[in-house]
Amino acid sequence: MKVLVTGGAGFIGSFVVDALVARGDDVRVLDTLLPAAHSGKPDYLNDQAEYQWGDVTNPAVVARAVADVDAVSHQAAMVGLGLDFADVVDYVHHNDGGAAALLRALHARAFRGRIVLASSMVVYGEGRYRCGRHGLIAPGPRAAVALDAGDYEPPCPVCGAALAPEAVPEDAPVDPRSVYAATKLQQEFLCQCFAREQAGVTATALRYHNVYGPRMPRDTPYAGVASIFRSALARGRAPRVFEDGGQRRDFVHVRDVAAANVAALTVEKPYAGPVNVASGTPRSVLDMAVALAGAFGTDAPEPEVVGGYRLGDVRHVFASPTRAAAELGFRASVGFDEGMREFAQAPLRAPEISPAP
């Protein structure tokens, strides 16, 4: 099978490339090496893959990349919350514009095959909650006045009672609450439209939860919380944990995410629609910071719970892995403690554009 991996020089994409090459697949990579994530060509590139350097939004570049491929793993994207809303044009250009250009190029060559899209759990907004009186309920955005007072848990919007968070399934309502989240959901919709109109195409949207592991970019606001904490430890600084550290997430290792991509590309009956990619074992953000600091070394500073919040953040969101197991045969295999020990010692990738520490 000949597979195009867009963003295949990046954090997750490079592991997808390695997994496909190990299977014996013919792998082509298209990557623009965005300065926000790369200072140049990384040293971990797989020498058995073909690399084309260019922007997926460029019609000539992407037309060349999609020629004669049997399947596509679309990983190329700007990720994370970024700096502020001023990033909106870049996010829409790279994420939605990139997906649109890729799909147009596939349409032009009458592509018939599987598309696997790197989506994200951020499309859910807050996760799934249950009120003892009102059952499943959507709490809505947390009020700034409550957050300022240190009231981080979202209450029931009907009776004001405490809510119990639950694992979120793929059929939960979507509620993107950041520019990045909005672009990820739009990418899903674009792929669905293409698959409906193009006979023989199946589009699977893998909703990654909090991915971590080697090759993450460091010292950048476009990385996840695990990378931000790891970067702080590398500078001898304590990881700064917002709110009270009780935010629950699902931390899934990048090798498991790569395995999920391979499963979606190769499972006998292709699955159309969204699939959570998660470990199935939620942890608090403070749990992760403590585990990472403990694995970093005996001299590592302990995490500091600093309060505060970011309006784009949600309180709890963690996944049900049931659909991934049933439809893709995928189950995460890297344990939390094992993964954090490896990540604590793994080198990170330096971006070209880094904010002051």
* Number of distinct beta strands: 16
Beta content comes to: 15-25%
Structure class: alpha/beta
End-to-end separation: 44 Å
Strand order of the largest sheet: 3-2-1-4-5-9-14
Task: Name the overall outline.
Answer: globular
Question: What gyration radius follows from the Cα positions, in whole Å?
Answer: 20 Å
Percent helix, as a range, is 25-40%
What summary fits the major beta sheet?
A: 7 strands, parallel
Mean pLDDT, nearest integer?
Answer: 93
Continuous helix count = 10
Write down the secondary-structure element order.
EHEEHEHEEEHEHEEHEEEHEEHEHH
Low-confidence stretches: none
Short characterization:
With 357 residues, this protein is an alpha/beta fold. The chain contains 10 helices and 16 strands.
How would you characterize the overall build of this protein?
33% of the residues lie in helices and 18% in strands. It is an alpha/beta fold and 357 residues long. It has ten helices and 16 strands. Helix 1 (11-23) crosses helix 7, helix 6 packs parallel to helix 8 (285-296) and helix 8 crosses helix 10. The chain is globular, with a radius of gyration of 20 Å. The longest helix is centred in the first third of the chain and has 21 residues, at 88-108. It has a seven-stranded parallel β-sheet with strand order 3-2-1-4-5-9-14, with helices on both faces. Strands 7-6-8 form a three-stranded antiparallel β-sheet, with no helix packed on it. Strands 10-13 form a two-stranded parallel ribbon.
Topology:
Blueprint: E1 2-6, H1 11-23, E2 26-31, E3 50-53, H2 59-66, E4 71-74, H3 88-108, E5 114-120, E6 128-131, E7 135-137, H4 144-148, E8 163-166, H5 179-197, E9 202-208, E10 210-212, H6 225-234, E11 240-242, E12 248-249, E13 251-253, H7 254-266, E14 273-277, E15 283-284, H8 285-296, E16 304-307, H9 322-328, H10 336-345
Parallel strand pairs: 1-2, 1-4, 2-3, 4-5, 5-9, 9-14, 10-13, 11-16
Antiparallel strand pairs: 6-7, 6-8, 12-15
